Amino acid sequence: MVTFQIQNNNIWKSLDSVSEWVSKNRYIGWDLYDGLNSIRIQKLCKGSKSLEMVFTQLNVYSPINLRPLLKIEKGRDTKGSALFAQTFSNLYYLTGKKIYKTELEECISLLKEMSLKKIYNFDCWSSHYFPYLSISKIKLLPGIPDIIGTSQVIIALSKSSKIIKDNTLKEIISSGALFLIERLLEKRNGDYFFKYHLSENDKTEVLNASAQGLECLSYVLALERNNYIEDVCEKITESLIKNQKKDGSWIYSIKINGKERIQLDFHQGYILDGLLSFLPYSYNKHKIIESLNKGINFYKNTLFLKNGESFYRYPMKYPVDIHNQAQGIITFSKLQNIDRNYLYFAEKIALWTIGHMQSEEGYFYSHKWPIITNKIPYMRWGQAWMMLALSTLLKEMDYGE
To answer: Is 351 within the bounds of a domain?
Structure first.
């Protein structure tokens, strides 16, 4: 029998601290990729995608916050709000405190307002409040819905529907699920995958994005079984398993010409979460479990050190990224359904992160090198993901205050 010594008091203290900081700032802040959220920068770039990429990446990696100088505006992020909503669902489950239900209701109300249904005829969401230039140089604008933002909102709505008495949530969830299937689902070379967004210019198959769509639809199935959705999920699952490498890893994406992009980081956790979520509903459970075991072995033993510190993008060690840390906590907490020993590793990641990347003010730093630490408090990238991570760990252990 495994004995766990989760230091839940330390984790609760950390979670309360970051939650208080977020509450004081009312969920409004900067984002890691908000470099183009400035009229000054847009004028300097004059539409040049190369210059836009330079300014975006400069703000990503600079440990000095250039945003006040560049007049980059703060905002409230859609995806971040979905993550906060999921956190408050967890916290209400753990404590039953009215304050968490109130915060959850506020987040859900905002997410409902942010739906782009009037434009696209389905409930769907854009991830961010700022324009963002992707690595493929496709510009994503706040009015263009994408798989990640839509999936995270649907997950938030699904989790909150068990707490909030709102008869419209089921309809919105169903509409969002149909958007994923009717507008984003594609087939190529035998693979079924979700497009990242509606742009017709980018036909790249992003594996972890499909996995988030899979996780999202699994939450929908948890509310009500649906043969059509189950069939789509089976096809997405088969494609994810087909594209898994022999070492258990997954590449980031495959272009229409077959060119692969390798990026080994927290996105591995997204795929594991997706497969794990659909496992109860699949008729190919043995294939999913086999794939999960290979993927877990790679994720745990290659992308993390034994003390819970993560690689940035394997084999690149630094900087330690707060999103890598948060995703590790989330994934290994959920994997206790396969082996409860993974909770012990989730705790290790959490305690290392709290000890090395949380400020005295409560917020979490974004990046850490051996000597330099980037202390810019990103609202979504750091705070939202860490709040969800810590609350997920406590929920999986069923540790209330």
So the answer is: yes
What's the CA gap between 390 and 50, in Å, rounded?
38
Largest CA distance in the chain: 63
Q: Give the residue numbers spanning the domain of 357.
A: 10-34+304-401
| 107 within 8 A of 119, measured Cβ to Cβ | no
| Predicted confidence (pLDDT) per residue in 129-172, tens digit | 998 877 666 778 888 999 999 999 999 999 999 999 898 999 99
- Distance of alpha carbon 351 from its chain centroid, rounded? 20
Tens digits of per-residue pLDDT, 259-285? Answer: 999 999 999 999 999 999 999 999 999
Place of tokens 């330079």: 54
Measure CA of the first residue to CA of the last residue in the chain; give whole Å. Answer: 25
> Which residue stretches of 130-245 are H helix?
147-160, 169-179, 207-223, 227-242
What span, in angstroms and rounded, lies between the C-alpha atoms of 154 and 217? 8
Q: Whats the size of the chain, residue-wise?
A: 401
DSSP track, 151-184: HHHHHHHHHHTTTS--TTHHHHHHHHHHHIIIII
16 lies in some domain: yes
The total number of structural domains in the chain stands at 1
Q: Is 348 domain-assigned?
A: yes
Tokens of 269: 């956790």
Check if the beta carbon of residue 112 is closer than 8 Å to that of residue 168. Answer: yes
What is the percent of the chain where pLDDT is above 90? 84
d(CA 141, CA 334): 33
Could you report the per-residue pLDDT of 86-126, keeping only the tens digit for each? 999 999 999 999 999 999 999 999 999 999 999 999 999 99
Q: In which element (H, E) is residue 260 found?
A: strand 260-261
Cα of 1 vs its chain's centroid, Å: 33
In a domain, 112, yes or no: no
Q: What pTM, to 2 d.p., does this model score?
A: 0.95
In this predicted structure, what is the pLDDT of residue 320? Answer: 98
DSSP SS3 for 122: coil
